[in-house]
Amino acid sequence: MIIIMEKGATDENIQKVCARLEENGFQIRVNKGELLTVIDALGDKSSLSEDRLLSLEGVKEVKHIREPFRLASRDRKEDDTIITFPNGVTIGGNKTIVTIAGPCSVENIDGLMEVAHAVKEAGCEFLRGGAFKPRTSPYAFQGYGEEALKLLKQAGDETGLLTVTEVMETQDIELVSQYADVLQVGARNAQNFKLLKALGKCKKPVILKRGLSSTIAEFLLAAEHILYNGNPNVILCERGIRSFDSHYTRNVADIASIPVIKKLSHLPVIIDPSHATGQRYLVEPVAKAGIVAGADGIMMEVHHNPEIALSDGNQSLSIPMFKDVMTRINNLKNRITYNKQTFCMDIN
Ligand code: PEP
Ligand code: MN
Predict the structure, then answer these.
(1) What are the DSSP E strand ranges found in 161-256?
(2) What is the average pLDDT value for the chain, to the nearest integer?
(3) What residues flank ligand 1, with Cβ below 6 Å?
(4) Which of 31, 53, 295, 345 could serve as a FRET partner for 252 with CA atoms 20 to 30 Å apart?
(5) CATH number of 2-63
(6) In angstroms, rounded to a whole number, what is the distance separating the alpha carbons of residues 317 and 115?
(7) Which atom of ligand 1 is nearest to the CA of 105?
(8) Where do the structural domains in the chain lie, given as residue ranges?
(9) pTM listed for this prediction
(10) How far does the centroid of ligand 1 lie from the alpha carbon of residue 186, in Å?
(11) pLDDT tens digits for 28-67?
(12) Torsion angle, CA of 310/312/317/318, rounded to 10 degrees?
């Protein structure tokens, strides 16, 4: 909740309110403006009633954040979160539309470098590649672990691309942070609260994928765990949700979740058309739809030879296909501007 103090509230009044909140287990942030002081309080509201707060001297008003995801909510932070990387690349606020591309899994340096150069030449900002793979089957390829992290870093350094890779376990956060610029939480770990809390303590930006069957509220509450534990740099990734028909599409690409999240939250949102569809011919249509629906970026899988990919070959673009797709996506990017009223892009 937010406590708004009277114009003439004294420092003593403010301190008393803060002390009362802290005694009741709230985390507080005091914003002293020229005219008004506002106290931002996060905690269990049942422990301290609104009436008791209003009875304290100097308190003018108590406002409640409507949404259960308080830190992720636009009610609390109206301005978009914009994450700036050391090389100047930004993500968020619909300023630019970034592209993250690369193989599902890092397999070998030659294949990865071939993809990395194509990704760079197409104007993308990030190279992706899995090292620790969350696989449904224990018999499927599990990723090459630290060896793959080293190759990803090498490819990132050689091309100047920022790197993204998944972290599956709390104990690996430190290791993965040494190699990658952005840590990804996969759909299967989207409600692994221990991992989310630990990522809150880490300094690197986090791409949080939507859980396999997460509602939008559950998705935002998962982000809330990272924010609440201290890391403000969360990028939400719509990657499709499970439904009844997985025959022609692996998941259902929930395009509407993008403007919904833009309306509800200040956090950047990207779309992953590869996992959302599972079919390479559907990557372009869903990427474009996501962009027009207001996404701050896209994440696509590209492989140097999808037929022999160790994971997700069906949905991986070949390098020539990726180049063509990117030409058309870059054309689209030049013709659109974000409209804050409609939560989506105007086409110019
Ligand atoms: C991935 O990005 O390779 C991946 C496993 O994605 P998801 O968690 O969305 O299935
Ligand atoms: Mn994949």
Answers:
(1) 162-166, 182-185, 206-209, 234-238
(2) 96
(3) 104, 130, 134, 186-188, 209, 239, 272, 275
(4) 345
(5) 3.30.70.1140
(6) 10
(7) 3
(8) 2-63, 83-347
(9) 0.92
(10) 5
(11) 989 988 888 999 998 888 888 899 999 999 999 999 887 8
(12) 20
